[in-house]
Amino acid sequence: MTRPSQRANDQLRTIEIIRHYTKHAEGAVLIKFGDTHVICTASVEEKVPGFLKGKGQGWVTAEYGMLPRSTGSRMDREAARGKQSGRTQEIQRLIGRSLRAVIDLQKLGERTIHFDCDVIQADGGTRTASITGAYVAMVDAVGTLLQKGLLTETPITDSVAAISVGVYQGQPVLDLDYIEDSDCDTDMNVVMTGNGGFVEIQGTAEGEPFSRQTMDQMLDLAAQGIQTLAQLQTQALAT
Amino acid sequence: MTRPSQRANDQLRTIEIIRHYTKHAEGAVLIKFGDTHVICTASVEEKVPGFLKGKGQGWVTAEYGMLPRSTGSRMDREAARGKQSGRTQEIQRLIGRSLRAVIDLQKLGERTIHFDCDVIQADGGTRTASITGAYVAMVDAVGTLLQKGLLTETPITDSVAAISVGVYQGQPVLDLDYIEDSDCDTDMNVVMTGNGGFVEIQGTAEGEPFSRQTMDQMLDLAAQGIQTLAQLQTQALAT
Amino acid sequence: MTRPSQRANDQLRTIEIIRHYTKHAEGAVLIKFGDTHVICTASVEEKVPGFLKGKGQGWVTAEYGMLPRSTGSRMDREAARGKQSGRTQEIQRLIGRSLRAVIDLQKLGERTIHFDCDVIQADGGTRTASITGAYVAMVDAVGTLLQKGLLTETPITDSVAAISVGVYQGQPVLDLDYIEDSDCDTDMNVVMTGNGGFVEIQGTAEGEPFSRQTMDQMLDLAAQGIQTLAQLQTQALAT
Amino acid sequence: MTRPSQRANDQLRTIEIIRHYTKHAEGAVLIKFGDTHVICTASVEEKVPGFLKGKGQGWVTAEYGMLPRSTGSRMDREAARGKQSGRTQEIQRLIGRSLRAVIDLQKLGERTIHFDCDVIQADGGTRTASITGAYVAMVDAVGTLLQKGLLTETPITDSVAAISVGVYQGQPVLDLDYIEDSDCDTDMNVVMTGNGGFVEIQGTAEGEPFSRQTMDQMLDLAAQGIQTLAQLQTQALAT
Amino acid sequence: MTRPSQRANDQLRTIEIIRHYTKHAEGAVLIKFGDTHVICTASVEEKVPGFLKGKGQGWVTAEYGMLPRSTGSRMDREAARGKQSGRTQEIQRLIGRSLRAVIDLQKLGERTIHFDCDVIQADGGTRTASITGAYVAMVDAVGTLLQKGLLTETPITDSVAAISVGVYQGQPVLDLDYIEDSDCDTDMNVVMTGNGGFVEIQGTAEGEPFSRQTMDQMLDLAAQGIQTLAQLQTQALAT
Amino acid sequence: MTRPSQRANDQLRTIEIIRHYTKHAEGAVLIKFGDTHVICTASVEEKVPGFLKGKGQGWVTAEYGMLPRSTGSRMDREAARGKQSGRTQEIQRLIGRSLRAVIDLQKLGERTIHFDCDVIQADGGTRTASITGAYVAMVDAVGTLLQKGLLTETPITDSVAAISVGVYQGQPVLDLDYIEDSDCDTDMNVVMTGNGGFVEIQGTAEGEPFSRQTMDQMLDLAAQGIQTLAQLQTQALAT
């Protein structure tokens, strides 16, 4: 089997992480997983939602959107339709949980970091790119708080990144693009920390149910991909 | 460690499956996973949604709801608030995908089966109970179509059931109730067919990220629980 | 004339009142008017809506819903459509007014009792069953408050129940089921206290306008039906 | 007892019915019940709603609104809030049913008459004024259809009007204004045809439940008031 | 060229301004620009929106609506559709800005004047009539505040009025009615103070782009029309 | 007076126009007016809205959005709030009208061009940048139709661009950035064709009403700025 993208089964797309992409946000990252481009901003607000008031802890939350023509055919604008789809809500809840897994909300203090992940061009894997880019934006936003003296130590406990794995024409492959994703039997998104712990795993058999052996192979691929992403995050933050 | 429910780590709650619970629906099941009680109805409609018109295939879709006082403190009614929460949408999308995994939509023909899973009492595990009960309602609804001669062979290809597993006080446990769920480190919902194939897997580290070894233990527990549920489904359908 | 249900013109359907039907609510009743089954829960909240804050009185309010397949053909789920129908709003306003007629809101104190009447199977008369069942749930909820010492005397001043009357094939009849209701000339819902006072009356000529004489006959039937319901409520609460 | 309005207990407010109040609608009436002023328009549309297509009959429907400052203190505009209140929906459903009671929808043919009842100044009794004025607008709209030859005989079978009755300081009174309505024990709206048949009756005990005797007295008052309104409708249409 | 309305190119329609048109509002004006009739009410509320709390200044805001059958064919009711159109929002924002231009919000104090401009009959120019009438209602509302001693000097700094100009069959004309508006090349709404300052100008080339010379001619016409409107406002307020 | 941006009064910010910015859309432009960055895509759809069906002409429409953190402090996401603000609707209506002014909808044929203008970084003038960039995207989208042979001649009749002018500290200035815009007395947006015709003009006195002389000066500045923008559009399209 040859992947449509000509990549090896365990090969990521070209990853690019551009910090300070826009000027207003405390963290502003443009991340590219091949032709998937997502702007991830982190905005710090010096208050918490009502359910946390007075509890001495912070909050981290995320929203996700796609520009209407980020995809091959134009989608309706969610703001015009008056509601976010179930898919959008699933993704933004996933992003929020993933980031909360690597930040100590007590240490963050009574403030909120809002993440906005907006897809300007889509080619599969927008949620995994969003999580991976949002982590970098979070580090920058926390850096701002440290610089201003609003925090004295970082509340971030580990890095976090995400990647998709799937079964394409019978073989486990890493980091599906849109063509592969549209035609695969199984699609699984894995979120892991830089230290190799699992944060989230969401797998769906699009066609045939899959076996335990396939599951194990996919988890191996994912762990390897996440390691590479963690290194790229570190490099991007080092410059 | 002793579970709050006194159950063994690999022990399901008492499961009860009552068919023909209401009189109008083609399939109508009350399923109980301990104190979690869900009414699952299957309604057959002789048409398909717009995006499938004229394609010679059927559709299966699901909606989910909780009665406002199915829980310990009253929740707002989603119809009154004017929208379904992200959690509700996630769950009903999961139920729909799970059932579509075990039905041949071509053989179903140009008709839709709508599932409604309404929780009348909640004690953890409402989504797994919903999937497990909805499968039984699906068999009854298809039975009606076979009896009427609208179908000559069943489009159902396998059974499907779901169960939760988690890590409670450091140990993998099966079928979490509300108290365990509120206090666990990791929560994973697994959907499998009667033949042992994976359909869906959704795991979240609520606290600490979890290791590959823990993942493996949880998958073992889930597979065993699903086997028992599949037997109970068969028994319920035999009477 | 023979009624489709074979009942005498002044005969109620079989009434069943099951208390403590679910475990979380302060009052939780399953009431059956024949094949019409409604879960009525009463939830106590220790605060009042904004317009009553600081006025030293309580509030009683109700919401109503039908499970999508409680009826012969599946209805859209109101939560999914994003709004409650005019019919739903009329019914829940009626239930709320009926219960407020028999409770002293000053004596209730600054707390709210929320009623949820959810129809799990419908065969006509869902609003009258809801009111009749909700009264029983209210007594149980107030009982909880008395037991906890939050109230020292009951704020309930009388019992309340409701029944429908109509003109079917020219003759006044009591407690219409769905078949009768669909084909009747006049439909009237009457809410009365156990002491025989009128709380609400809502009559509609579906076909021909009706005369004063017919009105009088319907009111007589209703008064008699309510007396029976009041006795059944008392019996249910005695056990 | 003296009524705040100084009227006798069985005395209507000054009623004024102005036809052709605006120029576009097929029927356009400004009706005044004292200081309650409502514009009632009837708009003919040459099609029917989806559920009636091809059934060879027409439809009559109504919408109701209040200008934000038609009342003593400004209300939120329903269009700005994004939904109609339960009260609004109850009233417009009542108006629609009342008009359908006196028109033969078969004879109307496959067309719809939309009524819009917009309150420009409110002083109690807006729904009864709306029904009474809308009937006059309906006659004018049907007159237009007869003139154009779209109808050869009127589908209107009787006149219809509405009035409120209540118990104010212990005595039954006719046509409550806002001050009386705010302070009455019982409020009942009665819709009757010119021939004296009941179309709708909606009574509510605001304070104490009311007796059968009081009910009878209120019905007598209402019947007398409706007779007067029917005469005023006839006079208005004669000019 | 002759205008459909037979008016000279620089001729306004017959303008009528009726104060105290309804009884509840602090200012209540019915304004007629020919067959365009708008009720403009000003409602004083003794508080300000959240974003102005504690800033020692007042606020002026406006809402706009059209009765469904104010136009030649019935429009959907915005309250029933559940949202205001883009056109409605544009117009009400324009009205609000226009009025704020001639009132000193500091001198108004911490209170809000809400304007409601409701079109009961439309024949073009509803937004210009709304602004012109709302100004008169504002003077009356402020008069009420002065009378009650809540203000000691008027916060109103100038008068404001609005008129449309356009290019109809090649010639600049003043105050377009509906027929002219539907068929014109350019449509411009101009809001000016009584002292001749520009407050708002909104011009649109419906067909061909227009030249600077045409722009100049239209501005001349508008300035002249506004002068006349300012005089009519003064006269109306003098009586 | 010195402008905060140090620019001469008649000086535009640095303008940059990048074509083919994303890969899916028929036209995809990133336009920069200084620190204001907008992605403008043109999407061709081979059908028209319902109101134009069968009329043998095309349609051009636009939507506008701002990423939540395109601004100094994070704004609510309109998709999450469930509706577009009045400001958003005004802007997208303006963009649509501006583009329709320079395209022959008959020649376009029965197809729609949807424009999406999404602000990724805002510093004043987002609507003028949107119009100016969308024109370039329109030329590219039409180019695609010509290449595919779906059109044989261009329906575009002229170019169109937009710029803001205002009065800042008493002096007319061109192309206001955010700081100038927040503090100016008058703000006017002007849309003109490459041939110098006016398409739209929208001016607002934020503070003092402005005089005819100021109006004339602002129109002169705008005409000059538009000329420069038209040249830059031509250059961008030539490469």
Brief synopsis:
Six copies of one chain form a homohexamer. Chain A is an alpha+beta fold and 239 residues long.
Structure description:
Six copies of one chain form a homohexamer. With 239 residues, chain A is an alpha+beta fold. The first copy, chain A, has one domain (15-238): GHMP Kinase, N-terminal domain (Ribosomal Protein S5, domain 2), CATH 3.30.230.70. Chain A has helices at 78-81, 86-100, 105-108, 126-147, 178-182, 212-238, and strands at 15-19, 27-33, 36-45, 59-66, 112-121, 160-168, 171-174, 186-193, 198-205. Chain A is globular. The N and C termini of chain A lie far apart (39 Å). The model of chain A has no long low-confidence stretch (mean pLDDT 96). Chains in contact: A-B, A-F, B-C, C-D, D-E, E-F. Chain D binds chain E through residues 22-25, 28, 35, 37, 39, 41, 43, 45, 63, 65, 67-74, 77-80, 82-84, 88, 114, 116, 118, 120-122, and chain E through 22-25, 28, 35, 37, 39, 41, 43, 45, 63, 65, 67-74, 77-80, 82-84, 88, 114, 116, 118, 120-122. Strand 9 (198-205) of chain A pairs antiparallel with strand 9 (198-205) of chain B.
